[in-house]
Fold this protein.
Amino acid sequence: MSYLSHTQKSRITFGIVTYTAMIILGMIRFDLFFESTSNQVPQSIISEKIKYKATIAENTDFGLEQEWLSIDIIIDSILINNQWIDQSIPVIAIIQIDSLITEFQYGDNIIFDGTLEPISENRNPHTFNYQRYLFLNGITHQVYLPSQEWTLLKTRKISIQSIAKRIQSILTDVLRKYIPDPDNQGIAVAMILGNKNYISSDVLTAYQETGSAHIIAVSGLHVGIVSYIILLILTPFSFRSVISRAFKATIIISCLIAYALITGMSISVIRATVMYSSLIFIYLFSSQRNIWNTLAGAAFLILLYQPQQLFHIGFQFSFLAIIGILFFNPYLNRFIKTENTILRYFLNLFTVSVSAQSLLWPLIIYYFNIFSFGFLVSNILIIPAAFFIILCGILLLIFHTISATFSYIIAHILNGILTCINHFVFYIQQIDPISYDKIWMSSIAVVLCYGMMWSLAQLLYRPASRYLFSFLFSFNFLLSLIAVNTYHINHSGSLVIYDHKKEFIIDLIHDRTCYSIVSAPLNDLTFISERNRIRHGIRNIIHLDINKDYIDQHVKKWGHHVEFHEYVLDIEALHNTDKTTFKKILINDQKTNPQKDEWIIGLRESKKEQTDINSYHDISEQGPLIINFKI
């Protein structure tokens, strides 16, 4: 090993072999996860009504005013042949709420009679793949539970997770007691305890549009602040010997674990705790501190335990933000020439924000179709405020049982800080344009963007013609891709009949205008259609009333027929009035209207045998009907 450390060639060889072994081990680990998750539900019980015992796997004390609630549960045992067989199967339960139930606590036990059904794939174009998301969280099935089919038991399963969730719930009540303002209360509970359930939609939108949403999701920033607070407390003490440094590391890591407990042991906090624990360990015990190896080691440990984390947005954002800071912040700091300590501090905050966003913006656009410049301004105030909010929050939680007077003083300070940052965020939101939404980015464009950023990073530190060429190649390729996509949008049309079990949703897309026809108001209309509309660059949406006629240069609707280019839609036939079967789509060339080439008609199963079908599309089997054409 000493020989390897003294020769450059051996170090490179050792690194290649080590990282190759880690990658192979990761692939094997993910394959094992995939196989175990795919086969975790015995085939013999799927679609069979059986009695189960299960544990509630999340806290919730709101949403219970609704008739139905979706909640995570873990099946603990199954009744087969009058014997309870132990299992551990996470599923989604859609529960009809009993009026007597006021809350569910993590660890509560229920018993129910139900039928496990596979979670169906959302096949509509460009929509969020909810089935894949749940699979990566180990969930493959769901169960519907009417109120008469389930019973909340008086027992509760005790586990580290349930204890953490219970602590989080108790401390949430403490913060809500001392912070009466709803907006301040929601932000405080989210930032200090990681519970975002009390944030109003208006406040959440404001933070998202100003690029400040990361502050209300407990993750690396918050764990870093807690670590910094602990280091400040320990600063007066000397830790020079190995034993004393080990004691210091134990104190810091124990405090981070305690913080993970009070925030509910969420994946993001556990991930951040592993990262910071690794950094602290290396910082205190290693004379050769290589941040990149430490970062890689933390990622390896996380992925070894949960390989599916690689595909989680939180994992990607956490590591890319740190990599961006390590790459770009030292270079940007070279331009800070001021000797003013306060000004230099705020400029450092600015460069850190820019550095972190430098590798996040392609994924932000790819996943959320939005990008905000608000982070350039908002983070300058919000990040320092986050330090004092977390500090005051921790002090309040510690002293609320010791001194009521001191607790109210801290709560008053905390309320003032929260009021200031909320007003600041709402003010930034009003700046136009602070954010751009409905931006489409393909996976190829994401790769090109990261190619550009990699080339730029190399140019900053090692200027060379090959890196300049690489940057210009990626940049020009990206511009060409945008140009081709823009031309395609401006010279194409599309007819889309979406996959929906109960109603029909039709988009008639011409250029950048979408004519929308919906058989009834739907809560999930945006989820089903919005990303496809973003993909087509839609700027104008015209909602056609199914009971009213309409005419313009592209669309003509009369009665229950709609003309769109060479197609005629019979929306009366598309409307599945009994709502018991999927819609069937018929493309028929009977030339009922001699000026049109094709009819598109939806049929119920009862009509199938009575019609001469030339081309038949079954939504239940084939997914949504999508017809693209040039204009």
Notes: The first helix runs from residue 2 to 6.
